[in-house]
Design a protein that fits this description.
Chain A: Keywords: Nucleotide-binding. The complex is a heterodimer. Chain A is an alpha/beta fold. Chain A has helices at residues 32-40, 86-89, 104-108, 110-120, 145-149, 165-181, 186-198, 211-223; strands at residues 17-25, 45-49, 54-63, 66-75, 94-100, 126-131, 142-143, 154-156. In chain A, strands 2-3-4-1-5-6-8 form a seven-stranded mixed β-sheet, sandwiched between helices. Chain B is built from five helices and four strands; from the N terminus they run E-E-E-H-H-H-H-H-E. Classes of the chains: A alpha/beta, B alpha+beta. At the A-B interface, helix 3, strand 7, helix 5 and helix 6 of A face helix 5 and strand 4 of B.
């Protein structure tokens, strides 16, 4: 169903280790890669998948007693076609939607990115990052309706001076984990069912998260 | 040779195509160097030529003092001129490439032009950048912008605004 050389983010997982996929979306030159690089500082090993026009940044972190392997997916030019290959969205657990506060057109293109995202991933958490606020801080006095309208958590960030980058990415990881532990996307449900058929009943209990706690996480991520 | 040189001026020659730089060497003596662009014609790709010049062992010690943007600019001018564009127009086009128009959709640009726009934006990025080595560097910088009078961004109230915003 998917190409063998792209990683898989199997819905099941053992209790203390889990794998999540977070995608970055937005126009050319809004600073998607720069944001990921700022969050990871030197602790990253980017993996170029040039045939797919994408870059994978692998990151390991601890959330509570969970070891979490996060793959950040970043575009490598594919965004110029105003559309991403479906494999980019496949199995994603959260999305960071980025625009550049110095270039209006990048804001105006958000709806088309968001529509495409929702076509493939109707329910994953989506966070909105307004990047490059270091160019003119007065922009932070303004409100941007798009994020509000779609009830997305909104962050004024700067990959350059670091403002709110870590907060935004940590919230994205939390939201992705919460989503993974009680995903309701139809396709994921089907995938789980398929797994059920080939495995024995006992080994497919969900990832061992406490569902209530995760729900709270999801809420707090959405509020911030 | 590891002499330290300081570039003074750079320019181009159209026939035959060449890059020309003047520089002073470690004892302050002024020199001029002409770097012919062999096999350069109107169909040559700008980024390929830029790459070839950067990698050329004989030119490397001069060109590494030139900003990549400048090098690209000069080669772009040569390229445009060979394609029959007037000198004035070449220069104008280049000026346009040096600024980022906030209304311009960069998704629609070719690779070379997009790369140049990114280089311009990178300059701002580097200028405001807090590096790990900086004494006041902090990994997690949290700023709450929620307080204070918030006005809605004029980008939301355009005529062109549709249902989506």
């Amino acid at each position: 169903m998917e190409d063998a050389s792209l990683p898989s983010y199997d819905p099941k997982g053992d209790a203390n280790e889990t794998k999540i996929k977070i995608i970055c979306l937005g126009d050319s030159a809004v600073g998607k890669s720069k944001l990921v690089e700022r969050f990871l500082m030197d602790g990253y090993q980017p993996q170029q998948l040039s045939t797919y026009a994408l870059t994978l940044f692998k990151h390991k972190t601890q959330v509570g007693d969970q070891e979490v392997h996060v793959d950040f997916w970043d575009t490598a030019g594919q965004e110029r076609f105003k559309s991403m290959h479906p494999s980019y969205y496949h199995q994603a657990h959260a999305c960071i939607l980025v625009f550049d506060v110095t270039r209006k057109v990048t804001y105006k293109n958000l709806p088309s990115w968001f529509t495409e995202l929702r076509h493939y991933r109707p329910e994953i958490p989506c966070l909105c990052a307004a990047n490059k606020i270091d160019v003119d801080y007065s922009i932070t006095k303004k409100s941007f309706n798009f994020a509000k309208k779609h009830k997305m958590p909104f962050y004024f960030v700067s990959a350059s001076d670091g403002t709110n980058v870590v907060k935004c990415f940590r919230d994205a990881i939390k939201a992705a984990l919460a989503y993974k532990s009680n995903s309701t996307d139809f396709m994921d449900e089907i995938m789980k069912e398929l797994d059920n058929m080939t495995l024995d009943g006992d080994s497919i209990s969900s990832s061992g998260f406490d569902a209530t706690e995760q729900e709270e996480d999801k809420e707090s991520a959405a509020k911030s | 040779m590891s002499e330290s040189i300081i570039l003074k001026k750079c320019g181009v020659r159209f026939t035959p195509p060449a890059l020309i730089v003047t520089y002073t060497n470690d004892v302050g003596k002024l020199h001029r160097r002409t770097m012919p662009l062999r096999n350069f014609n109107k169909n040559s790709g700008v980024s390929r030529i830029v790459q070839e010049m950067k990698e050329n062992k004989r030119h490397e010690k001069y060109l590494r003092h030139m900003s990549p943007l400048q090098l690209e600019k000069l080669i772009m001018i040569l390229h445009d001129r060979l394609n029959g564009i007037s000198l004035d127009e070449c220069v104008m086009r280049n000026k346009g490439l040096d600024t980022v128009d906030p209304e311009e959709d960069l998704n629609k640009l070719d690779d070379v032009t997009l790369k140049r726009k990114k280089e311009i934006m990178d300059a701002t990025f580097e200028k405001n950048r807090k590096k790990r080595e900086d004494p006041d560097f902090k990994y997690d910088v949290e700023v709450d912008f929620e307080q204070g009078a918030i006005e809605s961004c004029e980008w939301d109230s355009d005529k062109e605004s549709d249902e989506e915003f």
